Queue: 2 jobs
Job 1
Amino acid sequence: MSWQTVVGLEIHAQMATRSKMFCSCRRETGLDPNHNICPVCTGWPGALPVINEAAVRCAIRAAICLDCTIQRESRFDRKNYFYPDLPKGYQISQFYRPYALGGAISFEREDATADRLPLVRIHMEEDAGKSIHASDGTSRIDLNRCSSPLLEIVTEPLGMSGIEAASCVRSLRHLLRWVGVSDGDMEKGNLRCDVNVSVRPDASAELGTRTELKNLNSFVSIQRSVEVESKRQIEVLEKGGTIRQETRLWDQDLEVTEEMRSKEDSPDYRYFPEPDLPVIVIEQQDIDRERQSLPELPAERYRELVDDLGLDPKEALPILARRENCEFFAALLEAGLSATSASNWFRGEVLRHLNDRSERIDQYPLAAEAIAVVVKAVEEDRISVGKGREILQQALDEQRDPNEILSESGEQISDESALVGWITTVLSENPEAVNKIKSGDSKPMGFLMGQVMKASSGQAHPRLAQDLLQKMIEQD
Amino acid sequence: MSSPQQFPPREATVQEALQWISEGRCSSHDLVSRYLDFLETEGKELGAIVETFEAEALAAAKLSDKRREQGELLGPLDGIPFTAKMNITTAVGTTDASSAMLVGFEAGEDATVVRRLLGGGAVLVGKTSCDEFAMGATNETSCHGVVANPWDRSRVPGGSSGGAAALAGSHGWAFHLGSDTGGSIRLPAAFCSATGLKPTWGRVSRSGLIAFGSSLDQIGPIARDASDCALVLDCIEGADPLDSTSLHQLDESRDPIEKVALVSEGFGSGIDDSIREAVRAAAQEMEQHGVEVTEVSLPQLHAANACYQVIATAEASSNLARYDGIHVGSRVAADDLQLLYEKSRRAGFGVEVRRRILLGTFVLSAGYRDSYYSRAQAVRDLIREGVDHALEQVDALLLPVSPFAPFPIGERIDDPIALYACDILTVTANLAGVPALALPCGFDEAGLPIGMQLMGARGSDHRLLQFGQQWQQWTAHHRELPVGGAS
């Protein structure tokens, strides 16, 4: 019997605002515990929340790029429960009247076809603090995260695999980062995901009973937990058992899901409208203003890169990974590079540097203009490709301007007599290599070429030197 | 030089006291010093005052005198003593909402209203007792003890702002900040023969008010008369960036009130004869002064108290969740978290507060929410519509504040239903969000005060106060002091 796995997602994304959702504390991580708090976010008696308008604008941007219907009027509600990291005893959320309904996440199926995961809603809410449970049984509470601004994005259930579920979240994260709504760092906890999993005999059957897996904080755990949980459900059903609606925990080390609480035990949150906050009114002009401030979305940039500039889709993807990448790429074009060489140098050098240095493009010290100058020197045959790469690397290592290094390192030498001089020396010093090549083994060619470049202090014109080297060995 | 120190008469209003000061007959320092004496003696005997700030107040009064000398007064209340209810935060002293849960709690900051008054030169002299977390109609649930009614010390002063009203009812010169969720300014004002205003919801910032029922709570003045209340409202009202429900646009209309309607439901069975008669007599008095008096029926009023109990307790159950023994509030140590919550909350909260938290939790619970909370919200809409509609025909609605006179201490405290009956005529203004002004309008055969209230349209606070001033020019009930209270 073939089963279909159905997945629904609830994604919490921390919005990248300067301050928290309802107070003026900075939205920051990494500060000493309980050093980024105020009367409002800690529920001090008498303190009242005030909506951070920047967070609402941020939320509007998210809703626009996910194609949601933004509600003119929405409202905050209180979600009541007791927990030590929730100092007010309730979380301010949007339950009855969220600000955005509908919409979809575009994602790629395993067979590389495009699909859309429909959204139920997006709402704004505040985060709780953190409980830190030590192994000695003591618990500590850090309220720094209290009242950080969150978006909760709730999707419809859709038939998909674990890989595809992860792909949805990846795609969502890409978009949220792109428009600056969220940093989307899962390891820092500012993107968290709950997954609802059910299985059904085939795609046309009624939805099966779902279980909820809480707080998945990596793409791998999203993928694997869906795979493991759907397999568990199928096994239960195939043995004639039934699935209970419950919340389960994902153990990523053992790769199993464990029961946490059943539906009957789930808390009664006693939602009611938050009387301390006014109704949120979002007018069309507010939406229009945010729409205008949005950068071009990845889909539009993709069309530009592939259709207009003629890049291969495979080349376009790493450039599209972040909006800042795209902007850097655009700056390379602006500085006069062709799409092909901008793409080659960006992917081949810039991304490799970032990878080596574990940096993001906005932390990259080299300016696109400076890189372009070096690339042009290569394209105009003034320096070799290798030399160009070397200059960029040196600029990074020594924190210098690549142009300065470029002007110091002499230009490429194409003068035949000079080339012949170096080659002659290299050939006479390496008779064995020459003999090997003559006997049909072309391997030492690279070695000899390296020697020539070395002899010329890297200034020999590589292509001319290569041709000449070949010719001189044959004539030898 | 040393003439015997003279003071304004004891019943003198704030404005009269200011007259004395400005004429140089006494200084703010003299006035505040003498008022502190009153607080320390009678104020404490009544159980009305919990803390006084003598050193700070005298220093502030001295500064005020200096400003007056230099002609640099900060505002019309400069140099005048005032108190804040125990549920309004102040940088000095403690703010415990009269609850064992918060005893000793130092808020560290002034509520917006307090900050504005201090900024206007008024002198904070102390904190008044109230019902625990402002939940009560008798001031018997305060952890600081029962407050006595100055007109008959065996009787309750009304609540929850009982301390404030007991002071205002027995002595002038000063004003008091109370809060009103279902009548907590007006009921004690009526019981103690003081004047008190429950402003339009949102007119006065709630920032710094320890929340009870947030959609109903308002801070307001309790004083000797309506013109003092107006002075205070002028200073404390207006938008506050710390309270996003505070109104940005205030209705500045001062059009005189010409049409008043008696609300029939306020004169039915269950209302003391003497009270019905006193308020009807007041209406006749108004008529004689050219006010057009009619009568309207507001049948929604019958549902108001039930509706109020559901909404107020629901919000309270959530507002008081923060007192969990972990962050703010007293903690009783326990081996596990659940026990810590249970023990701390049982030890910290009094019976009435626990009752309301339980009730509020129940009406919001799955399975009951629709029958209680949601229905109450729907009823609230009907009440609001009914009040709004009635106020389209007339400028103000007139009805008693309390259905009965101040009753003996202990009489109702163990009977919540009888206790909640105190609120039946006051909760409507809170549910509708409209302003309501309580004014003394006479005394019953036993010499106990009777109060009436005028409800106006949202935003008509100053029109009501202006009308109250007029009424108090026609009558002298508000000038009376309890026997034995003369200085």
Job 2
Amino acid sequence: MNYPVIIIGIPSDPALRAVRQSLDRLGTEVIVLNQRESFSWDLRLGSRGDTGVLKRQHGPSIFLSRVSAVYSRMMDPRVLAAAEGHEEWVDHMTTLHRTLGIWLEQTAVNVLNRPSAMMTNSSKPYQSQLIRTAGFRVPRTIITNDPDAVRRFASDVGRVVYKSISGQRSVVRLLEPADDRRLNRISWCPTQFQEFLPGQNIRVHVIGDEVIATEIASEAVDYRYAEREGASVTMHATQVSSAVAESCVLLTRALRLGFSGVDLRLDGHGDPYCLEVNPMPAFTYFEDRTGQPIADAVARYLASPRLLNVGLAASRRRDADRDLRN
Amino acid sequence: MWLLLKRNSDPAATWLAEGLSACGLNPLVIINESALSGGTVWTQRIGANGATVVMRLSDGTIVDSTRVRGGICLLGWAGAAPVGDFVQEDRSYVQAEHWAFLVSALYCVPGLINPPGPLGLAGPEFGLREWQCRAAKAGFQLRTKPVSSNKETCLRQRVIVLDTEIFGVQPPSRIAKACLSLRAISGCRLLGIELLQTDARWEFLSASPTGDLRPGGEPLIEALTKALK
């Protein structure tokens, strides 16, 4: 029996919408769980956390043991409740979000991506160490609250960029001579400085064993904010060598991810450095500009027949569902 | 050099430090939470040869990760002490950045019994419900009613698991197997497990990679020394 694929998040999220459309084209049954309605959901999990029933005001109950795969792009429930203008929902939505997180962690079906696997992104230099262990080169980096150490580092490596190290987004900027007078401010909090690697930006989306590479050309230091800096950004589909592609797949697996956005910089010799791995890629930014079928690859992965055999044994599924009905 | 990272006031950690030191783990540098949260000069480097960190603590002690052979972290979490000095809008940013740094800095210290990660500096710290799910998978029975029932004899027991050995009270073999299994599932080498022994059975209460190791006694100190050497 084929069970539905669950998509969780905000339905208007471009990535979510694109995957849903691709799944529809494949003829896969999809249930979209609109996180905006989560204030009215009730979720009860079995003792092991891998089974459960989700009761909804606006739809039938879902037995979580009868799901084939999950694509999750959940928003922070506190932000969502505030955006909806209902601060009183925060407690319920946060609890529900945590409980859903337990299921996403414990369920045997494929999840893009499990919450704990996405957490490497909350410490970029920690992730950088994992990336290096997986075999990629990483830029020379210093994280310090000692201004003199930064000056010595910049003197050693040449041009330097600085950026945040947590999950909070920041704009990557070049360290300019005029910034020297502000350097004393880092004594409050260790700050990351990294050698600036000139070269080619490549975003590699890895979906299971599939690799889709995009080249990004921009004169901006941080192409994501090119327009803000009055710079242009162009993208086109590209190919990476089979060795690089394989390394990206292995790195993604090492981080326990099924879907990732690997940011590479190819130096003047074409050697790849890995800058970071995004565990929840907003891939439509690339797909819309290149026409590359990333959503289709995600949908194929989620709908893959091999996944349907994974999960609970039928007898345990029946027992779990019966217990949760009672 | 070995490290012990602990809360500022923690008698159990003091017991551990004395025991490890007596077993020959010297010098043993004790780093209090306050040192991690403020007053320390940090420099972490990451490059082709790996990662290193140098910390200059407020008492002048310098800890260089290349000279560290191992250690134990009993701190699950440490915040940024001077966060109150920042305007409201910047506080969560500073907290997130400081946490990201601590995870990375301690991760590159070699030989910590439970390597730090984004889920905790002493190994993964799950919520109670998450521990219960893992405990159920490991084969434990979960406590479903309040502990304070006067119709049964209840005894709280703390078991410490280090790799494949159990320290402290020795539970029945089925429970011991579940303890070892939970330790493996959690991804820690060192795990404390709280159990409730009743007239009829042993039930899971909670678990954590931090906490009081004293129930493990001298045998645990010796095993930790062996693991760290």
